[in-house]
Q: What sequence folds into this?
């Protein structure tokens, strides 16, 4: 298992940038898909929709932000421009925007309203700016379109305060002249880095990886260290959705994509990067609002399950709530999200580790600290196994029997992702140790459902790691 120390060290050399850590710490964000499609019933607008159809008469970004906050998410990503090219802000570079709509007599700015509401509610704000533009006559002409796209990026990145993520969609179809554009990704990235150095670039970019489906399907082991090629692959338009592919959103992860980062998989890969996953999905079948889907809103149970598998499985969760033509989130969506928020607040309110005795083997860490360090949920306090030691056992003991629902583990990912296998065991009524579950990766966060397990002792045993594991947090609820 440990025959190749050089190889193991190579794997952990891929570490995150602080902006990636900050984004992973957000864990759960909401998407808002809003444009002319909201009024035409389409999922991909054609680009020739008249601006006059955009009229959110009851627009209230505060209602969106309140719902997102209540739902336990930490920010909103807005489709500032979707494939139809209609801009939700009064861009100086096109007439195809909210400024030529009847909304607020052409003086409205949805990006302003949503970013302001986010700030008022203590939420982060992110922008989606589709490179594919079916309205812009420059699309498909190369540099003139890239100039146009970059100008719009600059408006968004300089006019609306701090941006946590620029969400780059790989979709690339024909423009109004039947031509296809080859995006100058490197140039776009440079603009984002220069104007918003703290923002992550999602998808067709270097920071956050698309999980590979829109159905909420997760990998049993979601690795953050993956072949560097993965960041390039997503920029290839063929990988993205096709307009006539009606089943795209239902599709899961094909078997060739199941393992992206095991030791076995990475062995033959020359370049590795730290590229954590995000799972994006809609609370409804469509990304945009369609009244006929009012009865098909995902259930609270479904969202809870997806939350536990994504946030609790080393991936960010990005859940779309499409505003209605009035400019409000639909009450069913709000109610469902609120249930998720209530569940999250209650389920993780009372950390039973606080009143447990903690014992570890090895007892002392590499830096002379003890396992007490994992009580604090931050990256400044952690337990680092002595160099060369890949196994770590942590015991949580209580005076009285406890009823346990969730175990939460976090690695100190500043030093990469190291844990490859661990088990969770408990002491039964006779004091004998019983294995409860065998798991693989931890990464930013792993949530193990304990389903009301009753015990006086819980044992977490890391059985394999790339090099000495570093635990940052252990919580039990
Ligand atoms: C895709 C787009 O084509 C969909 O309309 C949606 O915006 C989704 C999040 O990304 O590539």
A:
């Amino acid at each position: 298992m440990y025959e190749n120390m050089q190889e193991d060290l190579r794997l952990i050399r891929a570490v995150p940038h602080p902006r990636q850590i900050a984004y992973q710490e957000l864990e759960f964000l909401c998407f808002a898909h809003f444009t002319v499609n909201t009024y035409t019933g389409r999922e991909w607008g054609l680009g020739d929709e008249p601006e006059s159809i955009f009229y959110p008469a009851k627009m209230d970004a505060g209602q969106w932000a309140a719902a997102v906050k209540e739902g336990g998410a930490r920010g909103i990503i807005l489709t500032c421009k979707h494939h139809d090219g209609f801009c939700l802000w009064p861009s100086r570079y096109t007439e195809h925007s909210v400024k030529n709509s009847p909304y607020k007599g052409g003086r409205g700015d949805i990006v302003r309203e949503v970013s302001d509401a986010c700030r008022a509610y203590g939420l982060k704000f992110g922008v989606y700016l589709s490179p594919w533009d079916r309205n812009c006559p420059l699309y498909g002409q190369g540099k003139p379109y890239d100039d146009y796209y970059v100008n719009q990026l600059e408006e968004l990145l300089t006019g609306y305060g701090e941006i946590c993520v620029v969400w780059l969609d790989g979709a690339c179809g024909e423009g109004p002249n039947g031509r296809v554009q080859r995006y100058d990704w490197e140039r776009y990235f440079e603009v984002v880095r220069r104007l918003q150095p703290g923002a992550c670039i999602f998808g067709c970019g270097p920071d956050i990886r698309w999980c590979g489906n829109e159905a909420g399907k997760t990998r049993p082991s979601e690795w953050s260290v993956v072949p560097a090629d993965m960041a390039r692959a997503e920029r290839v338009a063929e990988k993205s959705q096709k307009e006539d592919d009606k089943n795209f959103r239902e599709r899961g992860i094909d078997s060739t994509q199941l393992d992206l980062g095991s030791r076995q998989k990475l062995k033959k890969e020359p370049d590795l990067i730290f590229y954590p996953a995000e799972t994006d999905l809609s609370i409804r079948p469509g990304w945009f609002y369609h009244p006929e889907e009012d009865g098909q809103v995902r259930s609270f149970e479904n969202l809870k399950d997806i939350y536990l598998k994504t946030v609790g499985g080393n991936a960010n969760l990005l859940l779309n709530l499409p505003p209605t033509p009035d400019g409000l989130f639909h009450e069913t969506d709000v109610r469902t999200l609120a249930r998720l928020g209530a569940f999250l607040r209650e389920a993780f309110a009372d950390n039973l580790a606080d009143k447990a005795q903690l014992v570890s083997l090895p007892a002392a860490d590499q830096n002379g600290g003890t396992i007490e360090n994992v009580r604090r949920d931050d990256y400044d306090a952690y337990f680092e196994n002595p160099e060369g030691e890949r196994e770590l056992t942590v015991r949580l003991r209580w005076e009285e029997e406890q009823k346990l629902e969730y175990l939460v583990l976090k690695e100190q990912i500043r030093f990469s992702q190291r844990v490859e296998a661990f088990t969770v065991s408990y002491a039964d009524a006779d004091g004998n140790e019983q294995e409860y579950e065998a798991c693989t990766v931890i990464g930013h966060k792993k949530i193990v459902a304990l389903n009301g397990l009753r015990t006086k002792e819980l044992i977490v045993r890391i059985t394999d790691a790339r090099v000495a594991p570093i635990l940052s947090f252990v919580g039990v609820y």
Notes: The domain at 2-347 is CATH 3.20.20.80 (TIM Barrel).
